[in-house]
Amino acid sequence: MSKLYLDQAKVARARQAASDVADSLQEFISERTTVAVERTVLRLYGLDGIDADYVPLPNVVVDHIKEGGELQRGAARFVINAVLQKGLTVQEVGEEVAAGTLDLLELPLLDEATIRNKAFELAQAGIEKIRANRQKRDHYVSTLGEGPRPYIYVIVATGNIYEDVVQAKAAARQGADIIAVIRSTGQSLIDYVPYGATTEGFGGTYATQENFRVMREALDEVGEEIGRYIRLCNYCSGLCMPEIAAMGALERLDVMLNDALYGILFRDINMQRTLVDQNFSRMINSFAGVIINTGEDNYLTTADAVEAAPSVLASQFINEQLALRSGLPEEQMGLGHAFEMSPDLEDGFLLELAQAQMAREIFPKAPLKYMPPTKHMTGNIFKGHVQDTLFNVVGAMTNQGIQLLGMMTEAIHTPLIHDRHIAIEAAKYVFSNMRTLGDEIEYKKDGKIVTRAHEVLENATEMLEDIREIGLLETISRGMFGDVKRTMTGGKGLQGVMMRTEDYFNPFETLLREELGLEAIAR
């Protein structure tokens, strides 16, 4: 029974409206592909490395096919045709294209059945690598165990992957359950994935496959030392969203920032590009057993947290429905929200509690990701530590899944090791001492907490029904999320979106659909 006495008919109305919105988008998504989707296909086939000008080989090959006007048919067709005709591996095909010794579009195409059979045969090998990683994670969790929920989630962001490793290991020993390696500033806006281990990021560390491998190895090492599996998180968003999902799946990341609307609203990435990319990226994350984190918390940094609360809930419903259509189960949906109301607001704690408890009740299976106060941190470290403590109290009381710890030095500098230690120590104290407090509490039917939850649900339901009428893309153009307006043809990356031809095929999409029990695409 709902502690907030939520009207379940209204919850069902909201979910149905979000479902209708997602259905209307799926046809739009399924008609299109992007350069990032096609690069992802090649990465899943094992293509990696850079050319003489340091351009990643997936970019070289996809750009080569696109310039020839054939990418809308799918990159796999032309690469696998070359594999068959030249007796090369996918990697060797990429290297020859980069060297200028092979033109994929000059090769006559073999018959369609021959190409497809080989494409699926080689794709199955990539699928099995991801399956093996998921099984290895499951083995670690069953043998080492892991921390109780909410998982304690902390960030490292030195810019140098090897220094990140030092900080990550220290955080794990202090009690962290999830290490998130913050990406270098602006990486989401570059239309390629950097190559190799990196040591010079800005405000964070570049997301590269080698950096993923280095950190995964380090966390496995410290996890075996302390007897607890440590999860690794990175950022599967921006112009390379599905590529990073693939790299994470191949290197056994466990958590990925992956939102349907975040890149549109907060990075001005074209909405068509983002929606197509997120669909494929979530299929990969789902099969890999990765928990996604969505970015609703960001609305509260650009809009007032009290007024914007209904848009947070509405976005959670939409993210849930889009994720389901990518085969992602509720247990892997780390739907986002945040403790971002002004500390000067009287009874703000009650309103925050209402929002968190409401999200917990409406999405009971989801490992909700709860974000700490940032907007109203002032540099007063003592007050900041109190704000973070109240945030941790709400997290404990409402059984959040993932608690991104606040740092008392927020708004001053990137956290140092001792800042992180203090945050983890304080969170562990609250979580242990209040472990079952939520089970002991009932709320007044006519109290401020219940009233607030009902008001937010009512407004979110009305908002979702409005979105269903006008369409999500038009909703975004009107600035209904986070007070940010975007257009269908604006933003970065539109030139990388193409309509699929009737004979388009993506063997990984087909295999993932089969694995995830989604509607099959004919082979």
From TrEMBL:
Give residue ranges for domain D-Lysine 5,6-aminomutase alpha subunit: 4-510
The protein's matches in Gene3D superfamilies, at most eight in alphabetical order, are given as: D-Lysine 5,6-aminomutase alpha subunit
Instruction: Write out the GO MF terms.
Output: catalytic activity; cobalamin binding
Task: Report the superkingdom from the record.
Answer: Bacteria
Q: What is this protein called in UniProt?
A: D-lysine 5,6-aminomutase subunit alpha
Native organism taxonomy = Bacteria, Bacillati, Bacillota, Bacilli, Bacillales
